[in-house]
Specification:
Layout lengths: L1 E8 L4 E9 L2 E8 L1 E2 L5 E3 L6 E2 L12 E6 L2 E2 L3 E2 L2 E2 L25 E5 L3 E4 L7 E5 L2 E5 L1 E9 L4 E8 L3 E2 L8 E4 L23
Antiparallel strand pairs: 1-2, 1-5, 2-3, 3-7, 4-6, 7-8, 9-10, 11-14, 12-13, 13-17, 15-16, 16-18
Length: about 200
């Protein structure tokens, strides 16, 4: 818990939030797409404070997170576990939040590399809306139409809830191609922990 403050630094951290936790401790959350709390708001663990983005000096959507004590950066500790040594490249280490971000049972967290169109069924016939690039939850998978290029493709479709919905359409329980998963191969459908997403 603590007090959240909004900041903007277009040349660097972009839209970011700092939280003053008391006792000299602060946490920082950089490159946010949008803020979800007012400046000076009291916030608690598990509360959404913003949405992941790529604002400022950033090459793609991610959370740049820091823990500071009396203004000095610390080795980050989550649930009593240190994250150091930090990896030198992407997809080397993973951490799944247990903070109650709507993850509950039956949801699997995945990273998508681009905005993906969601459809009413596991094919490209009836577009419903868009699932934004970044970290999203999905429920299960269904084999369907092939999506991709000559060398990178996927037949699995993931049932999920879309971020934006076209007029007159339904964004709940829509299907997005597993082609958009950031870190797995052709015809694979796994979550960020490597767990195979179950069939619907």
């Amino acid at each position: 818990p603590g007090t959240a403050y909004r900041h903007s630094q277009p040349s660097g951290a972009g839209n970011y939030i700092s939280i003053d936790h008391g006792g000299g401790w602060q946490t920082y959350y950089f490159h946010l797409n949008a803020f979800s709390v007012a400046n000076g708001a009291q916030v608690g663990q598990g509360q959404q404070i913003g949405t992941t983005g790529s604002t400022g000096n950033s090459s793609g959507a991610h959370i740049h997170y820091e823990q500071l004590l009396n203004g000095v950066g610390q080795n980050i500790v989550i649930n009593g576990q240190s994250l150091s040594p930090y990896p030198g490249s992407y997809y080397n280490k993973y951490l799944t939040s247990d903070n109650g971000c709507g993850g509950g049972p039956g949801k699997y967290w995945v990273d998508t590399f681009a905005n993906a169109t969601g459809y009413a069924a596991p094919n490209t016939a009836d577009a419903q809306g868009i699932l934004n690039a970044g970290t999203n939850y999905v429920y299960c998978k269904v084999w369907g139409s092939r999506v991709g290029t000559a060398t990178q493709f996927n037949h699995w479709w993931l049932r999920t809830d879309l971020d934006s919905v076209y007029a007159g359409k339904n964004g709940r329980n829509a299907y997005v191609s597993a082609y958009y998963l950031s870190r797995w191969g052709n015809d694979e459908a796994r979550d960020n922990n490597g767990t195979v997403i179950p069939n619907c």
